[in-house]
Amino acid sequence: MYHRIKYMNIMFKRVFNVRKHGLINQNGAMFFGENAFQDYVKQNINKAGGGELVNHIDSLTVQGGLKQSMTLDYFPLYSEKRKIERVLILFRVNDNDGKTFKHQQDHHEFVKILNSLDEVVCITKRDFDIKFFNQKGREIFNKNNQAINGKKCYEIIHGSNSPPKTCPLVKYNKTNQLSKESITFFDNGHIIKATPICDRHGNCASILHQITTNMKAQKENLSMEELRMRTIEQEIHKFDDFKKRLSKAYPELTSYNLNHAALIRMNLSTNEAARYFNVSPTSIQRAKVRLKKKLNLPGERSLFNFLLHF
After folding, report:
1. Domain 119-221, classified CATH 3.40.50.300, yes or no
2. Class of domain 236-308
3. pLDDT at residue 109 greater than cutoff 80
């Protein structure tokens, strides 16, 4: 992942009092400073380059030499071939006892970038209300802004009066527990990657949905089943660190157990796990029971919640 600055909007230049030509094509350390860049900014850029949504709070020097607390959100930007080409960093001013540096936040450039993406992006609140639907989403689902306003995401995306049981928000609203990692699930012909957007206190404020539709599968001459399996194979590699931690804590777990645990943490159904391993759903159910025993979990303990927070 390269770490050169490629673009900055007008508000960025005003707030930080920098010249465009002084930073464009320069390493990010030119703006953040070498120590801060190496300590955490570079790591977050690399994480976003791997498909994660991450953020952190920093104290930055703004116009006039004032120190301002800001939250930096890192967003991966995908090409038409679904490869991450760049990382967008959004700077959000934090309220600090009324001493916030007074500048109107400019989201126009951010919205333009999301609208230019060749994938469906939908941002929702915890109550499923749609906060944002990009241009590609409005085209795919044949909706305009007026038709989306005040609607729930499941009404537009799934065409139903209630959210699908596989939706991670359903479990979150019941348990108030949600992994900060992305969760991929399947419903109504769509592959949906849901990523929590947390505030500076670590609380889930919104959910970012990246949606691959059945139309995409048809364009690539793939069945939805093939596209599902391909997506699972891509996603499971992101859980290598999780599997290493689990293996270290429970050395008796087999490679099959570790992959099964990763699929459970991804919130896949029994049938989807069965298709991945090419076995029957009954075999998956038995394997889940054996996995709980190896993890020394009591019968009433949720295996999903245990793995989600491991």
Report:
1. no
2. mainly alpha
3. no
